[in-house]
Structures are given as C-alpha cells and as structure tokens.
Design a protein that fits this description.
- The complex is a heterotrimer of chains A (about 575), B (about 130) and C (about 290).
- With about 575 residues, chain A is mainly alpha-helical.
- Chain A has a single domain (about 55-580), classed as Cytochrome c oxidase-like, subunit I domain (Cytochrome C Oxidase, Chain A, Up-down Bundle), CATH 1.20.210.
- Chain A has helices at about 40-45, 50-80, 90-125, 135-150, 180-210, 220-255, 265-300, 310-320, 340-345, 350-365, 370-395, 395-405, 405-435, 440-470, 480-515, 555-560, and one strand at about 1-5.
- In chain A, α4 runs antiparallel to α5.
- Chain A is globular.
- In chain B, α1 (about 5-25) packs antiparallel against α2 (about 30-55) and α3 (about 85-105) runs antiparallel to α4 (about 110-130).
- With about 130 residues, chain B is mainly α.
- Chain B contains 4 helices and 1 strand; from the N terminus they run ααβαα.
- Chain C is of the alpha+beta class and about 290 residues long.
- Chain C is built from 5 helices and 10 strands, in the order αααββββββββββαα.
- A 5-stranded mixed sheet of chain C has the order 3-2-1-5-8, with helices on one face. In chain C, strands 4-10-9-6-7 form a 5-stranded mixed sheet.
- The interface between A and B is large, with 95 and 65 residues.
C-alpha cells in the first residue's frame, strides 16, 4: 500500500506533554487503513516499516553473533592443548574461516549499519521512514538468505569454506578449494554485499532528503553523521568486493585465469581488490559503534557531545584516509609501496585519537550515570584505545614484518572488534527501552558487562604475548611449548568469560521481557528526536515535532531554562522563544 | 542547502583523486590506481548532480534553514509504501539465483520465475499505488 | 580540591594547562626514546632482540614505539578512569554544558600528527636497513610448497627438502650477507623466522629477495605463517646458522653426496632450477629497496 505521509504539523505544546498515549490518532495521512492490512506472518513478510526491519536485523545479527561465538569457543577448546584432536585439521580450517566470516559479514556489518541504524536514523532526523522502504525490506531478505547460504556450507560434502575469511588466491582456486562450500561462501557474500549496497543507498538518500525542518546537517546527532559517512563508504567499497567475487567465481568455474599464474594471471590482484574493500569495511564496522557511544556518553553525562564539529571532521577524515591504506595488510608481500601505506595508516590514528579525547571531554565535568549502557560505552573506549594503539605498530612495515600473521595481529583486531561488540551492547541497553517500551534489567546487565569487559582483556593480552613469542595464526595445533600452552589456556579462559557475558545478556533479554519495567518516552533524558516520541514509536514515528534549534532538540524542549546550544545564528537563545504557537 | 551535501561528496572525491594520482605515479601499481580512480568518479558524479540540483532549486528547503519551524515543513513529505510482498519475493528470487551458482543451473528456473514475478509486482504496485 | 557544588570549572585554563604539560611529556618521551635506548636498559616489551643487526634495529624500533604507546596509552587511560570516578553522579543538578574548547582540540590534533611523523621517520630509517640487499657472499633459493620447504644453493647441486614435521633445515653462514630468493610453487605461504624479527610471503609467480646477516651461529625455529591449506599448522623448518668455515664444509659435503640426477629430479618436482643462474632483483615488485 502506498501512503502519502504528511509532516506532523501539530506544534508541540510549550509545556512538555505526555506523549505516551498518542498511538496513531492524528497522522495526517491522506489514505491509511493499516487496520485492514495483513496480519500475523504475512504482516511480517510484507512489512516495510524501518522499525520492524531494524528489529529483524538486530535479532538476526545477534543470532549470528552467538553462532560465530560458538565457533570461537570450539576453537579455543581445541587450543588449550598443543596437539588436541578435538577437531581435525580440516574441520579447524573450516571453523576459523566460518568464525571470521560469520562474525564480520553476518554479524558486525549488518548490526552496524542496518539494525540500530535502520531504527534510529529516521527517528533522529524526524523522518517517517527510510527513503526507500521496499528497498529496505529487500536488503533484509538478501541478508537473511545470504546468512543461510553461507551456513549451508556445513551441510555439503567437503564442508564449509576453509580458506580464511579473506580467501586469498590461489588457495581459493577450483583445484585448491573444490567443493560447494567455497561457492556457497562466494554466493553468500554476493547476497550480503548487495544487501549492504542497498542499505547504503537508503541511508544516504534518507539523510540527504528526509530531515525535519530546522534539522540542518550540522544539527544531526553524531550517530546519524557517522551513518551518513558509512553509507558513502559502503557505496565506495562494496562494489569492489562484489567485482572481485565475480572474478573469483569465473576463475573457479568458467576457466578464466585472473588470479592464477598458470594462465598469466596475478594472484596478488585478489589481495589488492579484497583489501581495497576490506579496509574501508573495518571503518564501516567501527563508525556506527563510535556513533552509538557518541550518543550514550553525552546523555549519561548530562552534557552535550564535546567537540561536535571535531567529531564530524574526524569522521570525514577517517573516511577519506580509509581508502588509502589497504595495502598495510600486504606489507609482507614485498610488492607494495611501503612508505605510502605506512604514513597513511599512521595518520589515520589521529582522527581516532580526536574522537577518544572528545568522548573524555564529554564525560569531563558531567554528572555521570554509571548504568549498564554507560559502563559498556566506557569499556568500549578503553578496549578500543588498547586495540588502536597496537594497530600503530602494525602500520610500521619493519614491525609488521615480524607480527604479521601471528597472534599479535589476532589480538589487535579482536581488541578492536570486541570493543565494537561492547559498544553494540551499549546501544542495546540505551535504545532497547525506546524499541520495546521496557527497560533492560540493570543487575543482569552489569554482570554481563564485567564478564565481557574483563573477558576481552583476558583473551587479548596473552594473545599479544604469544604472538610476539612467534605463534602464527590459523594454527590447529602448535609446538609443544609450556609457555605457549599457558598463554593459550588463558586466552581460552577469556573466551569463556566472553561467552558467559553473552549468555547473561540473553538471560537479561528474557528476564526483562517476563518482568517488564515500563520505560516511558525518555528514560535517560536524552536529547535526540527519538526521545520525543513514544516508546515504541507509533506508525510513521511522530505525532508532533519540537522546534529544532540545536543537535539536542528534545533536551532543549525539556530544559527550556537552560541556554540552548545552537550552531549558527540562533546559538544561545532559549528554545522557547522560537516555539510556534 | 543540498550544497553541503554536494560538498561532502565532491571534497571526498577530490581527495580520492589526489590520493590516486600520488599513489599511481609513485607505485606504478595499476589495480589500486584504477580503484582510486573509481572512488574519485564516485564522488564526482553524485556530487556534481547535487550541485546542479542546488543551483536549480536555489536550495532553501526547510531542513536547510536554521530558523525553520515545524509549520514550514507542512504538507506531504513523500510516499512511503506501508506493506508490500514484492521485496520478499524478489529476495527469494535472488536467493535461488545464488544457489544456482553452487547447486546447478536448474535452480535458475524458480529464480527467474520469482524475479520476473516480483518485478512485475513492483511495477504494478508503483503505478497503481496499492496492494496488487 | 573541588567543592561540593556542581563542578563549575570549564575545560578552560587550569585543566588545559595540566593537560598541556601531559601532552608535552608524551611528545618528549616519544622523541627522546631513541636517546634513552642508547643509554639504559629498556624492557623488551615482549619482542625478540633479533639475531642480526637489522633484526636488532627492528627490535629497537619496537621498543621506541612501545614507549610511545605506553605513555600515550597510560595517560589517556588515566584520563578516562579519572573522569569516570571523579564525575560520578552526585545529585541532579545539570552540569555546565561545555561544548568545545578550540585550543584544546587543536592541541590534541596537532600533537598526535607530530608524534606520527616522528614514528614514520624512525620507521623509514629502520626499513631501509632491513630491506637492503648488498652484494651477497652466499645465496639460498627458498621454495615453499604444500606443505614443506625446499632450499637450493645456486651454483651448487646441494639441496634440502622436507615436508611438515620433517622440519627441513635451511643451512647458512653467519656474519656474511646471505641473499634469499623466495618463491612458492603453488599457493601463498609465509617464510617466518621469529628470532630474526622477519617474515615474507612466498608467492607463486613472484620472487621476493631479502638479505640476512646473522650474528651468531645456532638453530633458529621457523614456520609457515600464511594459511596454505590442510597442513598449514605443520609447515615447520629450522634455520641452522653455521660459522663460515663450517658452512663451507657442509656445502662441499652436501654437493659431494648429491648426484646430478637427484638434483635434476628434485628440480622437476618443485619447479626451481638448481643449475647455476644469477637471480635478478625484480624491479616493480620490490618497493622500498634502494
């Protein structure tokens, strides 16, 4: 059904009114009969509502997190002893390939730019939905079918893909990786790749065209800014990966020789193509979580985001530089321009540092509510600081020469990606009440936090050490060395703690559902427009909108006596003066 | 203003172009050079399009004005289809098409069927503005 | 010591000047690290000291980076933990809504850039030493394959080959520039000797050349680092460094015990020639080499 949606013109009353009751009364729709629409399963299959799609992505990606985590626990169980026979070497290669693939392609990406993003970008800019709702729905179905496709690998003869989540040629050739698992992996990445590209289109179009009156670009929340940049990065990077996958498939099945030496091809080209996508990808993964933390920390500190313009500048700088660092993953090939990639990779630490200092600045002098969401955010900043600093080493080719492909690198990227998971948890605790109308319980939440945060360090710190001792990555068995074994056991303890923390989170979800604590519109006194509407928001999101004079319109509305922030001509004026009658 | 939007894309694109020239000349490596050229074009193309649109509309949408009021944005925002089966059907068509890559061309039959059906449905839905 | 009322200090002069001195400390530390290293015993921060001059230069670079990372990391961590503890909620008053502090933001933009440039400068110096390829006294051709290593000596019949846990030994002389030509006959493998602080990919169709000048004779463990299939975990090898005299003896004995037919058959099996030939330095594929 096609609805022509009008902007809610009901001006918000001067005194904050109770918005919880307005569920679908005055929408100003031209034609609307949702009560006669589909119900049940058909309603879910045909929904184009960004909130439903965002929730679909959230649930599916968390399921993928648990699946990828299960693979990790098996890997860690194998590695507590040097020559364990828990799994065979062949199964081990499938396990770490699928652990990485599921975590990056099926959990982190979709969670980052399609779950909370789908739900909250339209809300934060005061829009009724995303720009292309049906395309949005298609993105989700492509993602779901891509996930099933990849996991089908375990059911075929020969097993799932076993050449690492990066799939270097010529290991991925038809001769070296026969069997359907590899083709399913390629196909899955095509589906999820297009899913991502369509999401990118939607995000950019929505932010460019559907903002509410007064919501200039520099009044958008940092979360939305980061997603705008992520949308652009997706459009720049993902088509490159898709092209590479097409080439790989052709090499495997149509007799081309793009990546094989025998036919005059260049295997190294795969690495260039893959990492030209792969490096922007890690910023596509990271920026949304940076955005979440940029929402939680200021709100829980009762302060505005410190250095707003600096954050925007840093995000744009990260995006620009991220397309010029790809070959720092290839320093040991001996075939890339070392100084260029080294200086660019070192420079990209600068905007990341700016962000960390701005988060600290947002906390400084505030009134910190150290609830679960805030704890996870602080845990994120600390863990990302550690992971980011170890990345600096890797940007120096001589140092990369002896750390590349060892557990030092494994520890580095796990520090940063598990930091992202902590940020994701912060987002769920922060925005969960808005999505479901219920708070998540704090006791289970804090328990989950401590297990996950400490577990992360217990896993990564021994991994850094054993990597420096010389233990390479992707080893199903390792030399019989007591020092190595002790460190590996500690890593497995850390992984177990992470698993327990995740389990506690899932318990919390169930408990919070069974014993609801009603959330209300704005349990955290947040500033974004999402806090102006009910929890959960009504169909098409807003019954009324406040005047938008800063990046915290809801805060301005609820605190009319505090001077408004404002960027531009109307900075410092009380928001009350501009409220239309 | 749409001008800020176009500037974001143009400036990013120019940066990629500059980086691309430095990289391609210094390294002589063609893969990266071509990919950075692509990034440059991907910034220029939509960037100039937005700039052209900004010139045409003189860009003063309510969301670009700092003193805009809620009343300024009154009226129909856009058309937002509220439920449609066609994304699901199209998605399943893509799913089967990808399975055809692995399990054999015969998967292409249901894939093609679903895709054509979905494309017909999408088109009809867009034209008629209602559930088909 | 702050009073009990809501904190009224903004991020103005007092905090800024305290932070300024902290930033300056970090900068000075990062720049002074090389000087310090020369004079006192700096911890290894987990890395090997490197069995060669180049390996040791890499180790010192590691130490320098580690000091910088530690100073910056501890400083930033202290700020985070301090803020989290000091500014815990003590009531319901709205704190001062500080949005920006331009001078502070400029400082923590510019100072990291300076630090990064210093790190890059140090990197280039060490990198040029590590990647230098002077005229060698000995040459070894290394071929990686699924799942083992072959070492041949151009101009000699001698060769060593072994798979997985046979752990073949790469024999080389100490205190001489030894050049290695590294290639793979199938997929990408990784030639990694932890104690030399070095690794390089072995790739099909692309020969990599590098030089080691190892200080001390001994046995150094080594392994494949790049995923190459089923027995990737087991692609062990050792580097046995002999004194130049012992190396000469070993090479002569090996030559004597290898028949030409053996050598030729081994050539054919894994695709690299043992017949005398002079490997040329690849041009476009070896960036960073002077």
């Amino acid at each position: 059904m096609t609805d022509l949606i009008e902007r809610p013109v009901t001006a918000a009353p001067i005194a904050p009114a109770h918005h919880g009751d307005d569920h679908g009364d005055d929408h100003g729709h031209v034609d609307h009969d949702e009560h006669h629409g589909p119900s049940g399963l058909l309603k879910w299959l045909t929904s184009t509502d960004h909130k439903v799609i965002g929730m679909n992505y959230l649930v599916t990606s968390v399921v993928m997190l648990v699946i990828g985590g299960a693979f990790a626990e098996i890997i860690r169980a194998q590695l507590v002893s040097p020559t364990s026979t828990l799994v065979s070497l062949s199964q081990y290669n499938q396990l770490f390939t699928m652990h990485g693939s599921v975590m990056i392609y099926l959990f982190a990406g979709p969670f980052a730019f399609a779950s909370l993003a789908n739900y909250f970008v339209p809300l934060q800019i005061g829009a009724p939905d995303m720009a292309f709702p049906r395309l949005n729905a298609l993105s989700y179905w492509l993602y779901l079918s891509g996930s099933i496709t990849m996991l089908l690998g375990f059911l075929v003869a020969g097993g799932a893909a076993n050449f690492g989540w990066v799939g270097y040629a010529p290991l991925t050739s038809a001769a070296n990786a026969p069997g359907s698992g590899a083709d399913l992996w390629i196909g899955a990445l095509m589906l999820t790749g297009f899913s991502a590209i369509f999401s990118g289109v939607n995000i950019v179009a929505t932010i460019f065209y559907l903002r509410a009156p007064g919501m200039t670009l520099f009044r958008m929340p940092i979360f939305t800014w980061n997603l705008l940049v992520v949308g652009i990065l997706i459009l720049l990077a993902f088509p490159v990966l898709t092209a590479g996958l097409v080439m790989l498939y052709c090499d495997r099945h149509f007799g081309t020789h793009i990546f094989s030496v025998q036919g005059g091809g260049v295997p190294l080209l795969w690495q260039h193509i893959f990492w030209f996508w792969g490096h922007p990808e890690v910023y596509i993964l990271a920026l949304p979580f940076f955005g979440i933390v940029s929402e939680v920390i200021p709100t829980m500190s009762k302060k505005p985001m410190f250095g707003y313009k600096g954050m925007v500048f840093a995000t744009l700088t990260i995006a620009a530089l991220s397309l010029g660092v790809w070959a720092h993953h290839m320093f040991t090939t001996g075939a890339v321009l070392l100084p260029f990639f080294s200086i660019m990779s070192l420079l990209i630490a600068v905007p990341t540092g700016i962000k960390i200092f701005n988060w600290i600045g947002s906390m400084w002098g505030g009134q910190l509510h150290l609830n679960t969401a805030m704890l996870f955010s602080i845990g994120f900043v600390i863990t990302f600081l550690i992971g980011g600093l170890t990345g600096i080493y890797l940007a120096s080719p001589p140092l990369d020469f002896f750390t590349h492909d060892t557990y030092f690198v494994v520890a580095h990227f796990h520090s940063v990606v598990i930091a992202l998971v902590l940020g994701g948890m912060a987002g769920i605790y922060y925005w969960g009440p808005k999505m479901t109308g219920r708070m998540l319980h704090e006791s289970w939440g804090k328990a989950s936090f401590w297990f996950m945060f400490i577990g992360t360090q217990v896993f990564t710190i021994p991994a850094y050490i054993v990597g420096l001792h010389g233990m390479p990555r992707r080893m199903g068995v390792y030399p019989n060395n007591p020092a190595w074994q002790t460190l590996n056991i500690w890593e497995s303890v850390g992984a177990l703690m992470l698993g327990i923390g995740t389990l506690l989170f899932l318990v919390n979800v169930v408990v919070s559902w069974k014993k609801p604590i009603i959330a209300g519109d704005n349990p955290w006194d947040g500033g974004g427009l999402e806090w102006f509407t009910s929890s959960p928001p009504p169909h098409h999101n807003f019954v009324s909108l406040p005047p938008i004079r800063s990046e915290r319109p809801t805060w301005d509305y609820n605190h009319p006596d505090a001077p408004a922030l404002g960027h531009g001509k109307h900075a410092g004026e009380s928001s009350n003066e501009k409220a239309p009658v | 203003m749409l001008k800020q939007e176009s500037l974001i894309l143009l400036l990013l694109g120019l940066f990629f172009g500059l980086m691309g020239i430095v990289y391609w000349v210094w390294s002589g490596e063609d893969g990266g050079g071509v990919m950075l050229l692509g990034a440059f074009l991907l910034g220029m193309l939509p960037g100039f399009y937005y700039l052209w649109w900004y010139r045409r509309t003189k860009g003063n949408r309510p969301e670009d004005r700092e003193d805009a009021t809620v009343a300024d944005g009154a009226g129909v925002v856009d058309s937002f289809p509220s439920s449609s089966i066609w994304p699901f059907v199209f998605g399943m068509g893509c799913f089967f098409a990808v399975l055809a890559l692995t399990f054999g061309n015969w998967f292409g039959v249901p894939a093609g069927g679903l895709l054509i059906w979905a494309m017909a449905g999408f088109t009809a839905e867009s034209r008629r503005g209602g559930n088909v | 010591m702050e009073s009990a009322t809501p904190p009224t200090e903004s991020l103005g002069t007092t905090k800024a000047s305290r932070r300024l001195s902290g930033r300056t400390k970090a900068l000075l530390a990062a720049l002074a690290a090389p000087l310090l290293l020369a004079s006192c015993k700096v911890p290894s921060f987990g890395a090997y000291e490197g069995a060669s001059k180049a390996g040791n230069d890499t180790f010192k670079l590691w130490q320098g980076f580690s000091i910088a990372a530690l100073v910056i990391g501890l400083f930033t961590l202290a700020l985070i933990v301090w803020a989290a503890l000091r500014y815990r909620r003590r009531g319901d008053q709205i704190p001062k809504q500080t949005q920006y502090n331009i001078s502070l933001e400029v400082i923590y933009t510019v100072v990291p850039i300076v630090i990064v440039i210093a790190l890059f400068a140090a990197t280039v110096v060490v990198q040029n030493k590590v990647l230098a390829n002077p005229t060698p006294n000995a040459t070894v051709n290394v071929t990686a394959f699924q799942w083992g290593w072959k070492f041949t000596y151009p101009g000699h019949k001698a060769y060593v080959v072994g798979q997985t846990t046979q752990t073949p030994e790469l024999v080389m002389p100490s205190n001489e520039d030894v050049r290695f030509n590294l290639v793979s006959s199938d997929v990408v493998h990784g030639f990694y000797v932890p104690e030399f602080n070095f690794s390089r990919y072995a790739q099909p169709g692309l020969t990599n050349t590098f030089t080691f000048n190892i200080d001390k004779p001994g046995l150094y463990k080594a392994q494949c680092t790049q995923l190459c299939g089923l027995y990737h975990s087991l692609m062990y090898f050792n580097v046995r460094v002999l004194t130049p005299a012992n190396y000469k003896t070993w090479l002569a004995n090996k030559d004597a015990s290898t028949s030409a037919a053996d050598a030729a058959a081994n050539d054919a099996a894994t695709g690299i020639q043992t017949n005398p030939h002079t490997p040329t330095l690849p041009t476009k594929t070896d960036y960073g080499v002077n």
